[in-house]
Fold this protein.
Amino acid sequence: QSVLTQPPSVSGAPGQRVTISCTGSSSNIGANFDVHWYQQLPGTAPKLLIYRNSDRPSGVPDRFSGSKSGTSASLAITGLQAEDEADYYCQSFDSSLSGSAIFGGGTKLTVL
Amino acid sequence: QAQLVQSRAEVKKPGASVKVSCEASGYNFIGNYIHWVRQAPGQGLEWMGWINPDTGGTIYAQKFRGRVTMTRDTSINTAYLDLNSLRSDDTAVYYCVKSSSWSGDWFDPWGQGTLVTVSS
C-alpha cells in the first residue's frame, strides 16, 4: 500500500481533459515537500513530466500541468492524445520516514 | 545531456546476490545523488535508497536494510547496487536515477532499467 494515494485508472476521449489526484498527509505533501510527476509509457522507464509541483521540463507539452494544495496534488492533461496513454506516478518525500522518497501507486490513463 | 546506462539483465537463483551497475555521463557525477528505484512486474515504483557519489554516504529504505549495499567508483562515474539473499519477490526492473539532493528533489534522468529475475 503506497503512502501517496492515486486512483488506479482514469480515462478520457481524445481532446478531453483529465485530472489525476495524489493524496498524501501532513508528513509528506502537507509538510511542504514538493510533488513530482512521471510518465511511464509501456515497456519503458519512467520520464519526468512535472517537477516542483507545477514546473515542466523542456520538451514537455503545456497540455500537462501540475498543482498542489494542502496535503494533495493534481496532474491535469488537456487536449488528450492517443500517445498520452501511459501510467502516471506522483512522488514526494516523507519526514516520518527520515526524508525517504515515496511514490503513489500509479494511475493508468486510457485514451478511449 | 545527462545519461545513465545500466548493466544488462540478470537471472539469479534464490539466495544468491546480484550487482547492478549504472554508468553516468553528461553531468557532474560527484555533484549529484544517485537513487535506486525498483518496479516488480505489473506493479508500481518502490524507492530503495540513495548514495552520495562524492562521500560514498548512503541511506537505505528500511525494507532493504541488511540486504542492500550501494557503492560507487568515481574514477569511472559508475554507481552500483548490490542486493543479496535474493527471493522470488525481488524479481523486478531496477532503475538508477539522478537527483540534485538526498531529499526533496526530482528524479531525472532515469537509467533504462535492469531486469533481475529470481527463479530456481
User: Anything to note?
Assistant: The mean pLDDT of chain B is 96. The interface with chain A takes residues 35, 37, 44-47, 59, 61-62, 95, 102-113 of chain B (CB under 8 Å). The beta strands of chain B are 3-6, 10-12, 18-25, 33-39, 45-51, 58-60, 68-73, 78-83, 92-99, 114-118. Chain B is about 0% helix and 50% strand.
